[in-house]
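dumping this here before i forget
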Amino acid sequence: MKYYLIVGEASGDLHASNLMRELKKEDPEAEFRFFGGDLMESQGGTRVKHYKELAYMGFVPVLLHLGTIFANMKRCKEDIALYAPHVVILVDYPGFNLSIAKFVKTQTRIPVYYYISPKIWAWKEYRIKDIKRYVDELFSILPFEVEFFHGHQYPIHYVGNPTVDAVEAFRMNHPEDFTTFILSNGLTTQPIIALLAGSRKQEIKDNLPDMLQAASTFTDAQLVLAGAPGISPEYYEKYIQGTKVKIIFDQTYRLLQQASAALVTSGTATLETVLFRVPQVVCYHTPIGKIIAFLRRHILKVKFISLVNLIAGKEIVQELVADTMTVENVRNELKVILYNKIKRQQMLDGYDRIIQILGPAGASEKAAKQMIKLLRTTK
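structure:
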């Protein structure tokens, strides 16, 4: 069968590439065409556009590149119609992908599958109308989404979480002790506080200075910063110069495997930190904290921002967001997870419950099998 996939960022490229690998196992004659990245290209097929040509974040960048965005959307629609795949598989990235879904559903007879559903449970809940109209099958990687979509009379498939797959595969293939890790990175024997300050420049700019200031108080530990892919060492230098932090690139999982505690900007990294069972504080600073705090209380539909607490359905980790993200608050919470054995164990017990809720590894395999089963039964 012919598959057309569309992703809009690095995480989508990763998850889509794993899905493609599993689709090939189930369908040896699988052919791929896609808007995606290097990882997808490594699985074979034809890349029409790189996701970096699509990804504009924030109101102003989107406004400045509207012409390019519309041109890419037009190209994508025309290419799908010309290729005539057996299915279009959309991966997250709702602003672009829901427009594509509408075109495919109204202008062709090609089924539309959505892998990694848009996070409409947080905000823009009105998008459920478009999903119900234009998406044939929705494959979720977050267990709490099942109840949300069922509440809107829209059935979905929970396939497990691919982050579980990634962490489990890493642990199996990279058994490593603390000594080996510190020697290979020129570190000391002190316990490690890991700093995961986000993957985008704005996140790093907003969060890293306060993280460093708060964590530097703990002189009995060493600070290790996980450098994000695509961010140059020179960009980090203006924030870390004059500090004792050590920065390492392309080793986030190795770092988490050995860390005693972590300061983490909200996102998938919070879930990865859970899976490595590292006590953490979620930090998300914004320049207009009080305004964001107001919007969070009155616009966001959820009580929490971290995947950790959302999956648990209660507070497992402390979230310092917007107006509560201060150096003093970070320092106080870090002190708790470093030295309070009871609180540390309570957090780890909460982690174990989250790991149980997520279920076993095999999300990509399960998604691929369900997709092909559905396609073969609806032919």
